[in-house]
Amino acid sequence: MAVDKKFIGREYGPLTYEIGKEKIKEYAAAIRNEDPHYMDDEFAKNSKYGGIIAPPTFAVIYSGMLAAPFFMDSELNLDFAMLVHGEQEFEFYEVVRPHDVITTTGKIANIENKEKVDVVSLETYSKNQDGKDVCKAIFTFVIRKR
Length: 146
What we know:
Layout: E1 11-18, H1 21-30, H2 36-39, H3 41-45, H4 59-64, H5 67-71, E2 83-92, E3 101-113, E4 117-127, E5 133-144
Antiparallel strand pairs: 1-3, 2-5, 3-4, 4-5
């Protein structure tokens, strides 16, 4: 069964995530990015940022949290056995630092019903505790039809 286009515009969130310095370091190590801006307190303290910052792709952590309520939306009735991650895009606006509190909201931006697949795009918007835009992300999922 095709994903109904009536769900375009359906909103999710807000969800909040507090950025931790150790989580930034763990993430940087996990993606094998040893840039001292992400890992080295002494180096980062003397950089233009004045301390550790999160790698841009850390956005997948706080913006990706919105995927859970999207996936669990019983009205969408997504077929998980047939769902694959298509792609993701990010636009970055502000540097993310430890102790930032990021709030993410989002919506289903598009649903395309094709012959053999449905393509669903979830667009998220993340702001910091000062209300400044941090990141826009688009997660695209492909659901193969049985």
